[in-house]
Design brief:
about 350 residues; eight-stranded antiparallel sheet; five-stranded parallel sheet; 20 strands; about 25% helix; about 25% strand; binds fe (ii) ion
Length: about 350
């Protein structure tokens, strides 16, 4: 169902308030070929209504010929900012960048954040943005989970389907994504609601079973038969199963990059307004699948880069896989049990 401009403007105003936008600050809205026109129009009005100096910076797409899908998260490589000094300067001079284009995992983004500029990514369809307008309660819940990760030395994940993964922790920080940017230099994604970190380099080991009904992203498909990943020394060394496994192997092989198989971020979903079933209601090109990443109690792991967490691994291939029905424990204490977050622990 569509949402009204009024609803979306009010949602933007709430996000801008949570992001501490003050009169006279500079807000730059970064747009591209796939920017949703209603989201842009409402962001422009909301930012002006907060008294901000508002710019729009529209950049042409790149990587179209390399990416195998239209999903903006499917191919991580050069961005429209690569070598674009004028655009980088404009963004560094802004207090807040509203990224309606999808600028992810690039050195230029890190550079802009280091200058103190805040960046908020918002590219999901308007009705998804409105449904998952973030709140201070979301922030508290996700930060509590991030603090639990920060203290832990091992994350273990098990499931009735056969997952048994051990990830030593401590080399990388815990990251909280709660949907707004309330501190200088912060990046976040509206909508979200999960806590994550990365396993110590080369140390994740065990077995991951992607069960029937689990979701692959950017494939945006529900698995129809189990896929079994063997994880050794931080990498998925085999991907076994039926057609779903073969499709995943074929897609990953197209990148011809060993680093694509590394275990990347690990964590769990904490957003109760996100749903496992939502992805099935959408055309694949209409959404990034943030419901799938954020729904409460999933174990979200990924394959690919760790530069987002301060590591050195970059690869154009990045796959996010939220699993249902897992038990996630930190140093032996469950934070998610059989796919349900344990209140007080998370
Ligand atoms: Fe990811």
């Amino acid at each position: 169902m569509p949402v009204s401009d009024y609803q979306l403007i009010e949602a933007w105003r709430e996000v801008l308030t949570l992001s501490r936008v003050e009169p006279g600050q500079t807000v730059t809205i970064l747009t591209g070929a796939a920017t949703h026109p209603q989201t842009l129009a409402c962001a422009l009005i909301a930012a002006q209504s907060k008294g901000a100096v508002v710019n729009r910076l529209d950049l042409p797409p790149v990587n179209g010929e390399k990416s195998l899908s239209r999903d903006a998260l499917a191919y991580l490589g050069e961005t429209p900012l690569t070598g674009n000094r004028a655009a980088i300067a404009a963004l560094k001079e802004s207090d807040l960048v509203l990224d309606l284009m999808t600028l992810l995992f690039s050195p230029e983004q890190h550079d802009i954040l280091k200058s103190g500029t805040k960046i908020l990514l918002a590219v999901e369809p308007p009705e998804v943005l409105v449904r998952m307008t973030p709140s201070l309660a979301d922030r508290e819940r996700v930060l509590a989970a991030a603090r639990r990760i920060e203290r832990a030395r091992e994350m273990r994940v098990t499931s009735a389907a056969g997952t048994d993964l051990r990830c030593p922790l401590g080399e990388f920080p815990a990251i909280a994504e709660y949907g707004f940017v309330d501190e200088p230099g912060r990046w976040d994604h509206w909508p979200s609601g999960f806590a994550l970190t990365f396993p110590n380099e080369g140390r994740a080991s065990g077995r991951i079973v992607i069960d029937r009904g689990d979701i692959l992203l950017p494939q945006k498909s529900y698995c129809t038969e189990p896929i079994v990943l063997t994880v050794e020394n931080g990498y998925a060394t085999s991907i076994e199963g039926g057609v779903d496994a073969a499709l995943l192997r074929d897609y990953m092989a197209s990148f011809d990059d060993r680093e694509a198989y590394a275990i990347s971020h690990i964590g769990w979903g904490l957003q109760k307004r996100a749903y496992w079933s939502t992805l099935g209601l959408y055309d694949r090109e209409a959404t990034l699948g943030m419901d799938a990443r954020a729904y409460d109690g999933n174990f979200l792991f990924s394959l690919g880069p760790n530069n987002e967490g301060g590591g050195t691994r970059t690869t154009a291939c990045h796959i996010d896989i939220p699993l249902r029905g897992c038990t996630v424990s930190l140093d032996g204490a469950d934070v998610v049990r059989d796919g349900k977050t344990i209140e007080g622990q998370a």
